[in-house]
Automatic annotation (TrEMBL):
Span of domain Outer membrane protein beta-barrel: 77-245
Keywords: Signal
Signal sequence region: 1-19
Classification via InterPro entries: Beta-barrel_OMP_2
Superkingdom of origin organism: Bacteria
Name under which the protein is recorded: Outer membrane protein beta-barrel domain-containing protein
Keyword Signal: yes
Any matching Pfam family: OMP_b-brl_2
């Protein structure tokens, strides 16, 4: 968690630097009672509102490439294991029983390369991080450096038993958005394929007998994962869903067909 907070702080600072090089999407016009004619990015707005401060929101319609550091598409949701098309685990995978409301997925992007076609459509290739945290129910330990996914039954009552993976995520995104409304917000419909490269796996256990224990290994997680994702939202808030089409674990025949589905909230489109 400390590592995640540190990354969030760095990305937030980087976003501020990147934003200085971005085109302005809004302008604040100071005016007296009456009408005001303002122009932003070759687009004109005539406003007859008699309030003294009028914020006119407009986004650039000019096509072109852009790239840089960012902090965007922050996903926070739940993960569900799908066992050969079923949400119920098969007998050979019962040792992976998990607490549904404590099994989570977190991810965000930190760099992107984009091309805007017009004011309503752009596509971009981005890179970021993706964590899946499985909160195991049983008092087991997933073993390191095994030819297949292997566990040990323990005589310890674990208060926390978390089995997690970290991936470098690389989504190719198609982003459609409506025109901005009076409040400056727009609806987004975002989808595309996402690939992931394994950075590592982790087991974290907390018990009265052994205190806090951590172990790092690849734990037979698949080295590369892929699947479609979808985000729908308004302004900077929405929902997401993604499904990884290949197996969660490789070279482990008994886990063949075990896949990961995640859904939840998405911020900062």
């Amino acid at each position: 968690m400390k590592r995640l907070i540190f990354i969030l702080i760095i990305c937030t600072l980087a976003t501020g630097v990147f934003a200085q090089n971005s085109k302005t999407d809004s302008v604040k016009a100071k005016k007296a009672a009456g009408h005001k004619l303002s122009s932003v990015d070759e687009a004109t707005d005539i406003n007859f509102n008699k309030s003294k401060d009028t914020v006119i929101h407009e986004h650039s319609k000019a096509p072109g490439f852009s790239w840089g550091l960012t902090f965007a598409r922050f996903d926070f949701g739940l993960s569900t294991l799908v066992d050969n098309g079923s949400f119920k685990l098969s007998p050979q995978n019962e040792f992976l029983r998990y607490r549904s409301w404590k099994t989570s997925n977190v991810g965000f992007d930190v760099i992107q390369f984009s091309y805007r076609f017009n004011s309503t459509f752009r596509m971009y290739l981005s890179g970021g991080f993706d964590w899946t945290n499985i909160r195991l129910r049983d008092n087991i330990t997933i073993l390191q450096n095994q030819p297949v996914l292997t566990y040990r039954q323990d005589n310890i009552d674990y208060r926390k038993n978390r089995f997690s993976s970290t991936y470098l995520r690389i989504p190719l995104t198609f982003d459609f958005r409506t025109k901005e409304d009076y409040n400056g917000g727009s609806f987004h419909f975002v989808f595309g394929p996402e690939g992931g490269i394994l950075l590592g796996g982790k087991v974290k256990q907390i018990s009265d007998e052994n205190g806090k224990q951590k172990a790092f290994n690849d734990y037979n997680f698949t080295k590369f994962t892929y699947g479609p994702f979808l985000r729908v939202g308004y302004a900077g808030f929405g929902i997401f869903a993604k499904y990884y089409m290949n197996n969660m674990f490789e070279n482990s025949p008994e886990q063949d067909g075990l896949k990961n589905f995640s859904f939840g909230m998405s911020f900062i489109f």
